[in-house]
């Protein structure tokens, strides 16, 4: 989905699959400074973004870009013959020559390093206070849990929380989680835990995290992730009782029809 200055752009599709772009609508919305939003739903959004940006260029309108979720941001390294798709997606954005690019909660530092004139925004850190209040979390006796070293690097600097970290081994190619162990120990059972991470896909990481946390005495387990794919609904979390509530944003997820998932609108950040 593409938005221009806060308005969603509608696109039609020709019978052969090509995209029809409404130039009049774009010119109606364009002004002295323009902000495009990329809410990635599929690769077709990249083509739409390109058409809109090029059209704005042709009419001498400058534009910045706000990326809700950077597509391919997890493909941030090469292992064996894997394709470094993040690099190529970043090259694509660089070719569009935005004045500035803001990326919400990138998976790693590789994303802002690859995208020209970019900066990252971490709403999870802002949301943590709200989640602490909603869950009745007590920083004196409850714990934040970071499922892997990447999450610890992103969020471990938050002050005033007791922290536990997971050691996760995942097969890069298949995505299968081989093991997840908790590093660190707890004073006594009966605590609450908030798992903090950037992205939930099928939720395997978080279900396993919640099970391990309950094994060491967690009485309540919550999940805070900025990005949550719709595939969570096909995963095992909704059927299990391991996670009491999920807090996320609408950078990827469609509106929730269950109390289990609480969605904060990203527009406020
Ligand atoms: O376990 P699922 O939900 O499939 O994947 C989410 C995890 O995989 C990583 O990329 C994310 O940072 C998170 O740790």
UniProtKB/TrEMBL annotation:
Alphabetic keyword roster: Kinase, Transferase
Highest taxon, organism lineage: Bacteria
Classification via Gene3D superfamilies: 3.40.50.2020
Pfam families: Pribosyl_synth (PF14572)
Any one GO MF annotation of this record: kinase activity
Record carries keyword Disulfide bond: no
GO biological process terms on file: 5-phosphoribose 1-diphosphate biosynthetic process; purine nucleotide biosynthetic process
Species name: Cohnella zeiphila
InterPro entries listed in its UniProt record: PRTase-like, PRTase_dom, Rib-P_diPkinase
Keyword Coiled coil: no
Protein name per Swiss-Prot or TrEMBL: Ribose-phosphate pyrophosphokinase
Cellular component terms (Gene Ontology): cytoplasm; ribose phosphate diphosphokinase complex
Entries under PANTHER family matching the protein: RIBOSE-PHOSPHATE DIPHOSPHOKINASE FAMILY MEMBER (PTHR10210), RIBOSE-PHOSPHATE PYROPHOSPHOKINASE 1, CHLOROPLASTIC (PTHR10210:SF41)
